[in-house]
Write a structure and sequence with these properties.
two-stranded antiparallel sheet, DNA-binding, homodimer, 7 helices, Arc Repressor Mutant, subunit A
Chain lengths: 193, 193
Amino acid sequence: MRLSGTSYAVLSVLDALGPATPYDLKQALEVSVQNFWPIPHTTAYAEPERLAKAGLLSVEQEPSGRRRKLYALTDEGRTALRDWASGTKLSPPQVRDEGVLKIFAGADPQPILEDRLRWHTHKLAELEGYLEAVTGKPEMASVRASLLVGVGYEKLIVDALASYVRSAQTATAAPTDQSLAGSAGSGKLRRRS
Amino acid sequence: MRLSGTSYAVLSVLDALGPATPYDLKQALEVSVQNFWPIPHTTAYAEPERLAKAGLLSVEQEPSGRRRKLYALTDEGRTALRDWASGTKLSPPQVRDEGVLKIFAGADPQPILEDRLRWHTHKLAELEGYLEAVTGKPEMASVRASLLVGVGYEKLIVDALASYVRSAQTATAAPTDQSLAGSAGSGKLRRRS
DNA sequence: TCCAACACCATCCGATGCGGACTATACTGC
DNA sequence: GCAGTATAGTCCGCATCGGATGGTGTTGGA
């Protein structure tokens, strides 16, 4: 069976959380892993099932009420997680940003970057909130470490965007000529000959 | 018919490129849009077909040889592209980074950040190469603008990582206690009661 | 001249990602 | 014990994704 980054994300959260229902898992994902590894909400239900089938998680039914399933790491699951985390192979990081796509398509960068500044400012505050919630908990050290990376990253972006937006340089302003046709140069991005 | 960010990515590249085969499209995507909006190679074949069916692209068969298909923007396609680019709605930016995921899982941050420093350094050089290839081409202004954003972004990351790696602080070092179990606090990331 | 080898180009397939819409269950105040 | 709301979970259909494979043209060497 093939384990994806998403599989390890689920294992990690379960490791930090202890036995949890899919819903617990979903909540925890939303305030942690989501920030650097997007996961759709349905995965919080589908993935544990797959992992349990592979023997990496144990399942236990709640005895009363909703009789929800409680998933927990097995020893095998813990081993798989540690092996992956200590391995040196890293898939390349990805960014997906519709704003840059619009700039590529010819939109005026200014309002887009201003929008992004607002967004990243909010995100920074959000992450700082999470960070505060795990201070003084040595057992959450790795969660804290990832949050520190996240906060550092957002600070970087916010500072850069803020200084750009403030000075609103014309050097990177929107192109006045939107007819991109006509290039026949030797660049990497070139028209057919 | 529903247009995704990927649809607009294809339209944008076709707009910059002029009439192109799926393969041309794939090549162009790889050195431009890929850097801020990941697209699998098969999409370069599947998406134009969908867009053509929706009337946003025209199709023309090569008369000789492989008789490949040449796709080009229709007026309708150009309008759709402009409308989207000038609209103010932006989906939130996403980052997907297995390195941070590993740090979250308890891995030692140091080697991961060093790996990332190398990766971003290469990426920065790559983007600067693309940038050079479009200098002095006013019809490529928007491509250049997006590259400037990309270069600025990578520079930011490289600088930050470099200074971090150099000083290798212990404040964010790997957690020595990996047994994350036991937390029963009131943080956002908490165990079941 | 012809063939082998390679580079280029394209499609297929199964698995997973993805999110909207919907359903079901529990809690809360009255 | 009921209405309304918050919580919890499922379903469905389509898009994404990448590995694998299969064609097609080109090049160079005997």
